[in-house]
Amino acid sequence: MAGSREQFGSKLGFILAAAGSAVGIGNLVGFPVGAAKNGGGAFLLMYAIFVFFICLPVMIAEMSVGRASQKDPLGALTKLSNNNAGWRFAGWLSIVTPFMIAVFYLVITVWIFGYLYESVIGNLDLLAQPETFGTFINSPSLFIYMAGVIAVVYLILQGGVKQGIEKAAKILMPALFFMLLALVVFVLTRDNAFAGVEYYLVPDVSKINASVVNGALSQAFFSLSLGMGIMITYGSYIDRRADLPGSAKLVALTDTAVAFTAGLMILPAIFSFNPNVNPDELSESSISMIFSYLPQIFLEMQASFGYFGASVIASIFFLLVFFAAITSLVSIFEVPVAALMDEKGVSRKSSLMICGALLVVFSVFCALSFGFVGFFSEFVSYAGTNKSFFDVVYDVFYDTILPLNGLLICLFVIYRWKKSKFNEEIEQGAPSFKGSILERYVSFSLGTFIPLFLLLIFANTVALKYFGVALIGG
Ligand code: PHE
């Protein structure tokens, strides 16, 4: 690469961009679905514990690997391990993972874009019907929406780091958060909403089992954009004088606040729209649930704002969600793009073209997985279940590889790069970190119970998902 590495314009710019990456469909869709499915309060409790005790140290580790090496994840692991072949493999994994996550993330972003379009043209009532989602994801117009989304991502990435990501995040993130808060207030004033608040906020610890733990952990990694080289890549764009642990804390807090608020909107809405819902049935919740509840929330607003007003509000909301998804998509996609530029010395433009073409191909396969094409819809079968191409990408990269990559980064930082160099790197820009409780916690946990725990989760997921055998609980 010619010249010096692109850098974020300011510390705030970095935090906003990292938070922009972290806040996305995972918070607004994945988290509420996970909470509904996994016992509400039990899930929330496990999630909060994981974010602060496991994910935060991993995030600090990733950011410092990026800043110390000033490289993409593959280059970073290669450089800091003195070209060790095993660690290079781990580096590859953290390039392939964000790429494959981008593949299914793009498909969900396309759905959001479609919902945005349909609300703008006045079809909110149609969207609120439960069957709509199933028909929508199998309609050919999906590919037109896909072309639109790809064009937006391409334009942002072509502009480079500073102009593209920073600008968008500064305005849209706060707007999204305030809109969410307003929606929470609206939902909480509906009948029976408090049954949902109770389900969400009062943990029933007897509900905590291996699948709740696994679900909460994968969701926390995904939501904080960990285990996929993103925080390494972003760390490589940040100034030596920046306070890494401080930034990581803010990113984790912002992300969790948004996810929590989204849950506080969706769970009460479920209980309010279905007063007789039996919480045990919620274990069947899926993404399609959100795609019918959100339009229903807006349709409810008709009584106060009329159909037109409700459609305008829905359109603004989907627009903000769409931008949150785009900032995330851009950040995932930046990893393979930057890696190809760094590793092969190609220009940003060529790298974008190559990665973009591959992304489109795989995403089209995913989009065809919902019944369009039999080959992709019933792609393989494991543990007694038929899986579509989309399911496979999701199972392998979201549920299985994220904790594995987290495990690898912990081992790398503490045992290969070494604790002392890691701490030295963080102390630059954060002198008060030296000797602090956080420092002791981070270096102890990253070298001991975090990797152990991640290994356990990884082994259990592999056994359960692919072989139908539960190592720990069901
Ligand atoms: N963390 C983002 C979200 O919650 C998604 C994401 C995943 C972003 C992976 C970047 C990388 O939606």
CATH architecture: Up-down Bundle
Which range does the strand content fall in?
under 5%
Helix percent band: over 70%
**Low-pLDDT segments, ≥5 res:** none
* CATH-derived topology: Amino acid/polyamine transporter I
Alpha plus pi helix count: 20
Give the domain tally.
1
Cofactors and ligands = phenylalanine
Main β-sheet, spatial strand arrangement = 1-2
How do the helices and strands follow one another from N- to C-terminus?
A: HHHHHHHHHHHHHHHHHEEHHH
- Spatial shape: globular
CATH class: Mainly Alpha
| Head-to-tail CA distance between termini | 50 Å
Average residue-wise pLDDT: 90
| DSSP, total strands | 2
- What class do helices, strands and sheet pairing give? mainly alpha
Rg, alpha carbons = 21 Å
Largest sheet: 2 strands, antiparallel
Describe the structure.
With 474 residues, this protein is an all-alpha fold. The protein has a single domain, classed as Amino acid/polyamine transporter I. Helix content is 76%, strand content 1%. The chain has helices at 11-22, 25-37, 41-69, 73-80, 85-120, 124-127, 132-136, 142-158, 161-188, 193-201, 210-223, 230-236, 244-273, 287-300, 302-344, 348-367, 374-377, 389-427, 437-447, 449-467; strands at residues 380-382, 385-387. It has a two-stranded antiparallel ribbon with strand order 1-2. A hairpin with a 2-residue loop joins strand 1 (380-382) and strand 2 (385-387). Helix 5 (85-120) runs antiparallel to helix 15 and helix 15 packs across helix 16 (348-367). The longest helix is centred in the C-terminal third of the chain and has 43 residues, at 302-344. The radius of gyration is 21 Å and the shape is globular. The termini are far apart. Phenylalanine binds at residues 21-22, 24-27, 98, 101, 222-223, 225, 228, 230, 328, 331-332.
